[in-house]
Amino acid sequence: MSTTSQKHRDFVAEPMGDKPVTALSGIGEVLGKKLEDQGFDKAFVVLGQFLLLRKDGELFTEWLKDTCGANAKQAGSCSQCLKEWCDAFL
Amino acid sequence: MSDLSSKSVKEIADLLDQYGIKHGPIVDSTRSLYEKKLREAMANMPGKQSPDKTYYREEEEEVTYIHYHPPPVRSEAFGDVTRRHGAVEQTYEEEDTVDEPIISQTQTSYQNVSRSRPSPLRSTYETMAPEPKKSGGIPGWIRILAFVSIAAFLYFVYANMEADEQSPFDKIDA
Q: Which ipTM was obtained for this model?
């Protein structure tokens, strides 16, 4: 059993709908604010970016680190969260 | 060359492919990421771009050059290829000088290489074709005789099988 957080499990359990970007695993208040400043105010917009990068976890992690200053753990967590969501719902 | 931000989308995509970087569409939100990756790749392997291009160009020149020339020139051209490909091409070169020259000229080096592959097969076919004429000491007429006798035998068997219903060979008993 992987060590996923409750936040991760909650996000992956259902369609994301209009959830805010802070609902993503690994994205807290600080990172969420930075993403919103760049126009990524909803989780589905970040999903859009993930899809543009062809669902490549490494590319997305790198992008997230560059865009909002996430560290490797946070970016990896968000990437994994989106990947599993896509596997379930896309 | 390092002014990536002024390059077109296609150029960025080509550069990414050259460095083997998997990528998605290059749009506003992804462009800066890809430019950054390209800068890192170019810092690691600056000269990667040009040698490939010259390689392909020379291959193309050789292909069009080869088409209308007799084998001796071709082997020389192949010699250039050999230097690049290594020892593998040696066998193709030897085989090709024996065979007929190449068929079409179309295109890239890879097609040329793939064409040279069937020619060893062709040469084996050609060498095999004349062989049955005299291999094993069986004259042709004996083979024909054997074939005819077997065919007659099979027809005889078939005719006998048909005897139950209506044989054309028996007299009609009314």
A: 0.89
Q: For B65-97, how does the pLDDT look when each residue is reduced to its tens digit (9 = 90+)?
A: 555 555 555 444 454 444 444 444 444 444 444
Share of residues in chain B with pLDDT > 70 (%)? 40
Cα separation of the two ends of chain B: 101
Is B24 within 8 Å of A63 when comparing Cβ atoms? Answer: no
Q: State pLDDT tens for residues B51-67.
A: 455 555 555 555 555 55
Q: Does B17 touch chain A (CB under 8 A)?
A: no
Whole-angstrom Cα distance, residue A62 to residue B33? Answer: 8
B interface mutation test: which of A38, A51, A54 has the most B CBs within 10 A? A54
Residue A1 C-alpha, separation from nearest chain B C-alpha, in angstroms? 30
Q: Would you call A52 and B22 a contact, using CB atoms and an 8 Å cutoff?
A: no
Exposed, middle or buried: residue B124 (CB in 10 Å: 0-12, 13-18, 19+)? exposed
CA distance B129 to B110: 29
